[in-house]
Design goal:
By secondary structure, the protein is α/β, with parallel strands linked by helices. About 35% of the residues lie in helices and about 25% in strands.
């Protein structure tokens, strides 16, 4: 069934909730009932400014008509529950019963009742609890909270410390694209937590933290209209390495970065002028521009469906239009790109135009470990991994490895990988943990890595 994103606008800060105001889940149910009653203008009055910019008046009515076309008439509200909190916004899921299916209405509600985001999608059962990967040995390490302070930004984090006196090698984990928690939670899976627990079991200190855009939303930059990857990832990654070097038991001469997806893509830029980092590990690092990676991904997903719906085809066409605008020579600071239902400043894309990760990586003298899943549909190995291999394979301090059975999250499977695979509980493959640990143990030399999976 179609997942229709009505809006996913950045969340501004709002005033605190009054004691006389109804609970957020009650407000969420009221909003759904107003939509079902056709009171679209009333709902639109609740929009935050970012929401209004991303979702012009009248689009809500059209989107609701499309939902009814797919799942039949609206019947009732099954339940409503708060699922989390971002800045001063509660995230709510309202389970709605339609004639043909259950649908989840997900929204972000400010403390003053303002609506910061809204989307409808297929009903999801509650996620099963995360369980330890079999290769993790919780008795061999401890975890302690560690807050990353970078200017006015404070990001909660977790430090995993092996038992013993040390000093130990240490790593900072860097998230993929999107606002992530410290574990990079995707459905029931937590790839960064897998990495942290697995590496700590091998005698490596690991620091992971909440991504700035997850905690601060549109306030991640002093000027939201000038947001770039510097604010999203790079500045905090450098600050995290400095913080890690000051921790007890850490060997400050053996600090490594491990980046996944976007984090891997940006690693060469992060370390280009940093003499403190001993080496970098790149997991599913793309070499092609991010907008083209996204376009490849949506084309792949659309091609996997036997009969894409007209609405899905329209959404793909909208993404294609956004990519053309991103690549247009007429794009200028101050412009806004509407992508996947959210508005992104042109500054983000203009900043990346002159960044070529392979070229920057070629200038680095530190050891590099490049790992890639062979079933990755988000960062295709046929283009991206091959680019890294062509450019760097001859370097003695660069090690590359492809795991044929692993997907973008470095979790094993069979057949073509699709987004639905991420909904199944799994763990980062044990061989990946073993290979990274062996590489770090040699100081980034090129040890014999284990068999591919």
């Amino acid at each position: 069934m179609l997942i229709l994103v009505l809006a996913l606008a950045p969340l501004p800060l709002v005033a605190q909730q009054s004691a006389n105001q109804p609970s957020s889940d009650a407000v969420a149910k009221q909003i759904v009932l107003e939509i079902a009653a056709g009171e679209f203008a009333r709902v639109e009055q609740r929009y935050t400014p970012d929401m209004s910019a991303a979702l012009p008046a009248g689009r809500l009515a059209a989107a609701w008509a499309s939902i009814l076309e797919h799942v039949g008439s609206f019947d009732s509200i099954v339940s409503a529950a708060k699922t989390g909190r971002v800045q001063n916004f509660d995230t709510i899921v309202v389970v709605c019963k339609f004639q043909k299916a259950l649908v989840d209405a997900q929204m972000a509600l400010g403390d003053d009742g303002r609506l910061g985001s809204l989307r409808f999608g297929p009903h999801q059962q509650p996620e099963p609890p995360w369980t330890n990967p079999t290769y993790a040995k919780p008795d061999s390490f401890t975890e302690q909270p560690l807050v990353l302070v970078n200017g006015k930004f404070q990001l909660p984090g977790m430090l995993s410390v092996p038992a013993g006196n040390g000093p130990f090698p240490a790593v900072v984990l860097l998230h993929g694209s999107g606002p992530h928690d410290q574990d990079e939670t995707v459905g029931p899976n937590k790839p960064l937590k897998d990495l942290a627990w697995g590496l700590a079991s091998h005698g490596i200190i690991v620091f992971r933290y909440v991504k700035r855009t997850q905690k601060y939303g549109s306030q991640s930059s002093e000027d939201p209209a000038k947001l770039t990857v510097d604010e999203e990832t790079i500045s905090d990654a450098r600050a995290a390495a400095v913080l890690l070097a000051k921790q007890k038991k850490v060997d400050p001469h053996r600090i490594f970065l491990i980046g996944h997806s976007l984090g891997a893509y940006l690693e060469p830029r992060i370390v280009v002028d940093d003499a403190q980092i001993a080496g970098i590990v790149m997991l599913a690092g793309n070499t092609r521009p991010m907008e083209l990676i996204l376009l490849d991904e949506v084309h792949y997903i659309l091609a996997s469906e036997s009969s894409p719906t007209p609405d899905e085809q329209k959404q793909v066409a909208a993404i294609e239009g956004a990519v053309k605008k991103i690549e247009s020579p007429d794009l200028k600071p101050g412009d806004s790109i509407l992508l996947l239902g959210g508005a992104m400043p042109a500054s983000y894309w203009l900043d990346l135009r002159d960044y070529h990760p392979v070229a920057v990586a070629q200038t680095l003298r530190i050891p590099i470990l490049i790992l890639q899943g062979g079933r990755d549909f988000q960062v295709s190995p046929a283009t991206n991994f091959q680019d890294w291999k062509t450019a760097l394979a001859a370097r003695q301090n660069v090690t590359l490895k492809l795991y044929p059975s692993l997907n973008h999250l470095f979790m094993a499977g069979t057949g073509p990988s699709l987004p639905q695979e991420y909904e199944k509980p799994a763990h980062v493959d044990e061989q990946v943990i073993a290979d990274i640990s062996a590489w770090i143990a040699t100081g980034g030399e090129a040890p014999h890595l284990g068999p591919t999976h």
